[in-house]
Every structure is written in structure tokens, then in C-alpha cells.
Amino acid sequence: MWEHLTAVRDLGRVHDIASILVHYGFGDMVHRLGLGGAVARAGKVLPLSQLSESAALPAPVRVRRALEDMGPTFVKLGQVLATRVDLFAPEWIAEFGKLHSQAPAVPYEAIHAQLCEDLGAPPGEVFRHFETTPMAAASIAQVHRATLRDGRQVVVKVRRPGIRPVIEADLRLLQRAAQVFESKFPEWRQFQPVGVVKQFRASLMLELDLAAECHHAERIAANFEGHPEIVVPPVHWDFTSERVNVQDYIDGIPVADTAALDAAGIDRRLIARRGAQTILKMVLEDGFFHADPHPGNVFVLRDSRIAVIDYGMVGRLSQARREQILSLLHGLVDHDPERVGDVLMEWTGQSDADEGQLAQDIDAFVERYHGVKLGNLDLAAMLLEVTALLRAHKLAMPSELALLAKVFITLEGLGRTLDPEFDMAGEAAPFLRAAMFGRYRPRALARHGWHVLGDTARFLGALPRDLQRIVRVVRGGKLKVHIDIDHLKEFSTQIDHSANRLTVGVVLAALIVGSSITLTVEGGPTLLGLPLFGLLGFVGAALAGAWLVYSIWRSGGGR
Questions:
Q1: Same-domain pairing of 373 and 516
Q2: CB 29 within 8 A of CB 21
Q3: Closest to 322 measured CA to CA, from 391, 400, 384
Q4: pLDDT computed for residue 470 by the predictor
Q5: Which of 40, 252, 482, 531 is 20 to 30 A (C-alpha) from 107?
Q6: CA proximity to 349, closest of 405, 411, 295, 399
């Protein structure tokens, strides 16, 4: 019942999205999703010439434009898809990478009341100076410059009023659409719609909480406490909440503005190395990294320090994931295809791939890196090859690893912009060697052995009790095996609908026969010269028959 109510509540939004999809040539998809009425309505509104013009564009371009037209939530979805280099080919990733969050600014009058509520007083009383014209505006928030009472320059990030209900409605639609996609579009299952939407939902809901972004910033700042060359803008918690955050203003040069860097006398090679070492430390040492290090989020200060801003999107790597990355690199360097294959299968968590063909492809992949020293590995190229191999076998990485691959590829591109001779592998080699040697230090081996021993002891301790429970269930004849097959569920639903229609048909036939008999009986009330009850029976039969015909036609049974 709740699903139906939310579906009705979102009906207007559904029609808007369906019209956009039809406009870009995805009418068949909308129809298969059960929105035939929206398709017909969109076809009447949109000129046929416009439809044919849009449908002639390449598929990645059409999808990207459709996401832009559907609004902030879907633009953010496209940005998440741009990180899934394991699911989409380079031409798709390139199009998703063109999506940006720039949006028209909300007038200050529209955010003033919310700001007063969040700050506890009007901005003019909280700050010495507050610029009502924003520096930048994105789909979720916009940024204003301000000056604290003590003279410090800060930026005030304000969430757009009313954005949360809109995003929640879009997320409900995306969740339902993803479930339908996986059940009705077998060709889309390799893109894991439900998993991608789940990852997207968690990321977007966290991004709506501007205080969470500040917690991320402080965690990374703590990890770089002994590295003065890296700057993370301090947070002013007295003014920070879910809908607003305040951090120091960074007066620096955008890292991609090479002309300005040269004019300021900045050593670009030094900046490239420092940037690479910063991200590598986050990934390989800390396991917590900035997941969106594009040029707009990285600035160079006049003293060659690097400042990184906007921690709304972060990635996490557990110790186990970092161990797997090291095992993958070991397998490549030591020419061990089995080790590489084990890591990839652990990442995908799927066993329905053609393991024979996969083993051959992995062996060929490892062979290309045979004899290559660790310091000479092209990490970006290697990650692209891994993701291409997974796509070919319709396998997918865990989301955090796909995010990591995107970060490394972005980082290498940025490094080469600063320094054409930038060597990502050379910068990564010391971190990788230290991590590899760290795996075999006595303390690390002892800690790992202690964990294994503890897990083994817990397993053996619980084993007699678990076996006793299984035997008790078998003896009592209560052992059940549950098999859940989606296609059988759909078939069962169709059988139920058919049985219901058959029952209605039988009742309808009985009603017609009974009414015919009643018409032959004399006496009783009449209407238009006919026995009343017989006439009412025929009217009821006519209505039931019309409903049955309409039901069959609407479900497609008449085609």
C-alpha cells in the first residue's frame, strides 16, 4: 500500500522523466517499464522532427543529455557513474565526465530565513561581513564568502532550501526503476542497477549533510598532521550544521592553471610529486581518501603548499582491500596469474563467469607485465586493462575500488598536465614497497596470526553446537531448502492473474446462464416488461465482461 501511495505522490515527476527519456529516443525503455501512457503523452507534446534529431545522437551523448535535463539528482548520478570505469567503456566515462554540478544561484532572499535558523542569528550579526552574491552555485549547495568577527576570511556553504524532498522523491523513483531494470532488461544486468543506485543513495544522502563533509575534512587533516606542505581548510564548528558549514577561505591558484603557476614561480614538477604522494598516502597508508580530486578542488598556495577542498565525496579502503591490491601487484610482478585471478574473483564476488576463458585472459594480461619492475608499472594503464577485462566478462569491482581506479586515472592525467614527464608509478613505488615489506614484519605477522588463531578458535568452539542444531532439525523432519528464482516468481504471478481471469469468466458464464433462466420465470417484479432480477443479472454480466476484456487488453494479452 505504501509503495502505491508513494507512486501516486511521484506521478508528476514520473511523467516528466518519461517525457525526457522519450525525447532522447528511449521510448521503448519507458514502455517496457510500464509507462505506456506517458509515452503516448510525450509523443503528442514533442515534435517528431525533434525526436528523430535527438535519437540520431550516439547513445552516451543521449544518456548524458537526458541526465542533465532530469535535474540535480540525475546529474549527481551521472557523476557517480563516471567513477564506474569497471562497468562502462571509455566513451561512456568521457560523456559522464562532462556532467557538472553548476546551477543557477538561489537568490539570497530565498536562503536568508534558513541561514538565520541555522546560524541562530542573521548573517549580518554573526559575521563582520557576508557577501550575499555567491562565489559558486551547484545543484545541492552554494558558497558565499564571509569575514569572521576576528577578521578571518571564510567560505559559507549553504544547502539549497527544499532540495531534500526533491532528492528523496527522485531516489524512490530510481530505486523502483533499478529493480524493474534488473528483472525486465537482462542486457542491463551487467551494469548492476540496484547496486549502483544503492551506492548512489548512500553517497548522495551523505553529501546532503554538510557537517559530514567537515568530519571528513578533519579526519584527513589529522592524517596529515605531520605534513605542513598539505593544507586542509579548518572547520568552524560554531557555525556548522547539517544545512550549512563554514571553513577557512583558500586563496590559491587552481592547480590546472599552469600559466598562473609559472607566473608565480611555482615549480610544477614539485607540485605534481606532492599531489601524487598526497593521494598515495591517503590510499595505501590511511585507507581514507578524497574521491574527487579534480582540478577545481585542488589549489596551490604561493609558498608551494597544496590545499585540497570539498570533501563531500570520499572513499574508504579496508585493510583487507589494501592487502588485495598488494597481492594483485605481487602477482603481476612475480608473473603469478593464479594470484591475480584469485584477487579479481574476490573483488567481483561472482562465480557465473566462464572461468576457463577468464583464466586465459588473466594469463595474457599478466604476461604483458612479465619482467616489468614495480617502479616501471603504468598504474593508470594497468587499471584500465583490469576494468576492461572485467567488463568483457560482465564482472564488476566493488564500488570503492572502482572509485579508486577513477582517482588514479584522474591523478595521472593531472600530473601530466603539470609535468609532461610525470611518472605515477615512480611516485607509487616507495609506498608500495613499504606496504609490501610491512606485510612481513614480525609485528604484522604476529598480529595476523593472532587474528587467524582467534577466528579458528571461535569457529571450532561453535562447531559442536551448530552440528547439534543441524542434527536436531534433520531428526525432527523440519529441514527446509528454500530456492528463490526470480523468473519463476514472474511466471507464478502470471499464472495467478490468469487463474483470476478464468474464475471471473466462469462466474460470468454462470451469471449469464442464471439470468437467462430467471427471464423465463413468470411473476415477480419487472422492468421494461422483463423480469427485474434477470435483467440485473445481464447488466452485471455485461459490466464484468467489459472489465475482463479491458484487463486483458491493458496487460497486452490481446496482442
A1: no
A2: yes
A3: 400
A4: 79
A5: 252
A6: 399
Q: Are residues 60 and 114 in the same domain?
A: no
The two beta strands, 230-231 and 306-308, are parallel
Range of the domain at 539: 492-556
Mean pLDDT of the chain: 78
**Is pLDDT of 48 > 70?**
no
Residue 414: pLDDT above 80?
A: yes
Last residue of a domain, one of 222, 249, 276: 249
Domain assignment present for 110: yes
Report helix angle 11-23 to 163-184, nearest 10: 60
Print burial letters for 507-528: b (CB count within 10 Å at least 16), e (below 16): ebeebbeebeebeeeeeeeeee
pLDDT of residue 239: 94
Q: Which alpha helices (DSSP H) does 26-151 contain, by range? A: 27-32, 36-45, 48-55, 59-70, 72-81, 90-96, 108-119, 123-126
pLDDT tens-place string over residues 284-338: 888 899 888 878 889 999 999 999 998 888 888 888 888 887 777 777 666 777 7
Q: Which three cell numbers stand for residue 274?
A: 606532492
For residue 3, the model assigns a pLDDT of: 45
- Is 487 contained in some domain? no
Whether residues 381 and 436 share a domain: the answer is yes
Among 6-20, 194-208, 309-323, 357-371, name the one with the lowest average pLDDT: 6-20
Residues 111 and 219 in one domain: yes
For the chain, the domain total comes to 4
CA distance 67 to 56: 17
Domain end, chosen from 101, 132, 167, is at 101
Q: In angstroms, rounded to a whole number, what is the distance separating the alpha carbons of residues 485 and 491?
A: 10
Same domain, 263 and 360: yes
Task: Look at 313 and 434; give whichever has higher pLDDT.
Answer: 313
Catalytically annotated residues? 292
Instruction: Write down the pLDDT at residue 34.
Output: 64
